Amino acid sequence: MTSLLRSVALAALVTLGGGTAQAANTIVVDVATGKVLSQQNAVQRWYPASTTKLMTAYLALKAIETQTLQLDSPVVMTRSAAFQPPSKMGFKPGSVMRLDNALRMMLVKSANDVAFAIGQTVGGGSIETFVAMMNRAAADLGMKDSHFINPNGLPGEGQYSSAKDLAILGTAIRREFPAFTDYFSTEGITLDKASINNTNGLLGRYNGADGMKTGYICASGFNLVASATRDNRTIVAVVLGAEGPIVRERLAAEIIENGFHVNPRSIRETVADLPTAEGPPADISAAICSAAGRTARANERESEEKRDEAFGSPFMTELDRPRNTVPVRLGGAAAGRNVEAGVSIIADYGIPVPTWRPARPGEPGAAAPASAPAPGSAEAIEEQRRTELRPGSDLLNVERSRP
Fold first, then answer.
1. How do residues 364-384 score in pLDDT, each as one tens digit?
2. Which one of 73, 87, 95, 110 is the catalytic residue?
3. Which residues are annotated as a binding site for substrate?
4. What's this model's pTM, rounded to 2 decimal places?
5. Which of 4, 147, 236, 269 could form a disulfide with 170 if both were Cys (CB 3.0 to 4.6 A apart)?
6. Which of 205, 249, 254 is nearest to 224 (CA)?
7. Structural domain of 205
8. Which UniProt keywords apply (predicted)?
């Protein structure tokens, strides 16, 4: 059977049974070794929905690593960012936040407007440049079944991934940025007097759960990239296409638990060894957003109220303590391009006002152009190191060099 026919056959499995989703694509990977502890249809192309924001976070962390951005760098809510559909924070155009606060809002609230604003910030003001950086990073990581068209996962032609590729991305984040694990495991945020809870139901309920990101659109069903750590061993699991959040969390807990009982030494196949797919991503809208699908989720919620076990899982417990929340706010950022330090909103945002500009080359008072570091010098070596660490930085430099 060809890869294309296999994708069609697997897609059919998901929509059998009178319009109710019957299966989910899953994979469980040992982070230290990359070994595949279990998988089901992991290479099938799928709409990633808001799990896309993991790539947005990855590139933001890369920018912090290379010191082209800092945790207190300003993220501006542009008009195009503010007009993104919900879920969103709903800040006014011109609102300014710190990058670290923006990352938590994006990962906890799954805020599409904030994700777009982060993309513009990392992309030097250009969302097109940032999307190109996303696809460059995906290629560099070996995510051969992924293509991105936006930083937030809103549906559109050309936006797809797979359980395998999202496991590769989640594993890369856990390996490369261990100091930022708490950003992906934040149980909730508070903004002024409002509290916003993370939709990852494993947090605080599954032993060792420590991230990462949920996602949902009709075409994808309910998705989750989850990580858990026990006894200095970390596992990343992906569930794509579950018929509801309760089913998704229950399945994720089960496959992670089973993964902890598998010895990676007994397995040879790594996530990079899995094949690639062909064709368009599966679309399970008819099952997920049909009357039957909505009824199934309502019945699941009703059953949940009567269960002794959280999410109907023997591996999860009720959250019997207050959530660990992190306060976020607007303002407090350092100065940035066209942004004064500390402001929470840019006055008269979007209205051109006369501003001083430096003299252009050849004009009186113009400074001499900065010379490039000498080949082989310490400055040149450091600049090259930063370029290699930050996917798509060459694209960013080209964009910024345009008049």
1. 555 555 566 777 777 777 666
2. 110
3. 213
4. 0.85
5. 236
6. 249
7. 3-359
8. Carboxypeptidase, Cell shape, Cell wall biogenesis/degradation, Hydrolase, Peptidoglycan synthesis, Protease, Signal
